[in-house]
Amino acid sequence: MEIQLKSNQKKHFNTFILKHNLLKGLTFNYTNQQTEAIALLEKSTRLKHQDIESQLDIHLCLIMTHVQHDDYKKANQVMATFYHTDAYYETKAGKEWVIKKT
């Protein structure tokens, strides 16, 4: 998948990099490689990107990975970054995302 993203002069690389990192992080998490998943997802949270829904999904995935790794303090720290109202997140990412968050 990464090879395809980098082909054609990286035409689609910036569009799909967050979704690629999310899938890769989930794959690491479910293959019992939580430390690699956490490192990749934390790196992805620092990327500036226009796709707000993918950024929010990465944050949720990072929370889930921390919880499954029994690191509740870090999961709570990431959860604390959601300081907007549910109505704000509903307009940015939709009702499904708000339900996932709660």
- Which structural class do the helices and strands define? mainly alpha
Major sheet description:
none
| Rg over alpha carbons | 14 Å
Q: Which stretches of 5+ consecutive residues score pLDDT under 50?
A: none
Task: Provide mean pLDDT, rounded.
Answer: 84
Order of helices and strands: HHHHHHH
Principal-axes shape call? globular
Helix content: over 70%
- What's the total number of strands? 0
Give the N-terminus to C-terminus distance in angstroms.
Answer: 31 Å
Question: Any overview of this molecule?
Answer:
Helix content is 77%, strand content 0%. The protein contains seven helices and no strands. The radius of gyration is 14 Å and the shape is globular.
Write a short abstract of this structure.
With 102 residues, the chain is mainly alpha-helical. It is 77% helix and 0% strand.
Secondary-structure blueprint of this entry?
Layout: H1 2-10, H2 13-30, H3 34-45, H4 52-68, H5 72-79, H6 86-93, H7 95-101
Helix pairs in contact: 1-2, 2-3, 2-4, 3-4, 4-5, 6-7
Supply database-style keywords.
102 residues; mainly alpha; 7 helices; globular
